């Protein structure tokens, strides 16, 4: 049992040291990201009174869009569709 416990302890220590190294790496990345964020922070959004707080591009329109146009049946013109000859009809016409 002592050898088994020693193996488990050694394996646990290896895994624990690997995890702590990864956490240190995450701390380094987190510090780099916070430094970068401090250098490149975005300016505050422009807020217009009586609008939502999304700024100019996200502001909701004051009026709804107009309804779609309604056409009378006389105004709707459909183009003629091309006539496709039937292959059976054309072959029987020339063979009489």
Automatic annotation (TrEMBL):
Residues 87-96 have a biased composition (Polar residues). Residues 59-96 are annotated as: Disordered. This is Uncharacterized protein.
């Amino acid at each position: 049992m002592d050898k088994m416990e020693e193996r488990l302890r050694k394996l646990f220590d290896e895994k624990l040291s690997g995890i702590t190294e990864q956490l240190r790496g995450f701390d380094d990345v987190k510090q780099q990201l916070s430094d970068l964020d401090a250098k490149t922070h975005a300016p505050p959004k422009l807020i217009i009174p009586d609008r939502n707080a999304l700024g100019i591009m996200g502001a909701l329109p004051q009026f709804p869009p107009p309804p779609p146009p309604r056409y009378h049946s006389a105004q709707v013109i459909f183009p003629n569709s091309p006539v496709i000859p039937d292959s059976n009809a054309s072959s029987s016409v020339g063979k009489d």
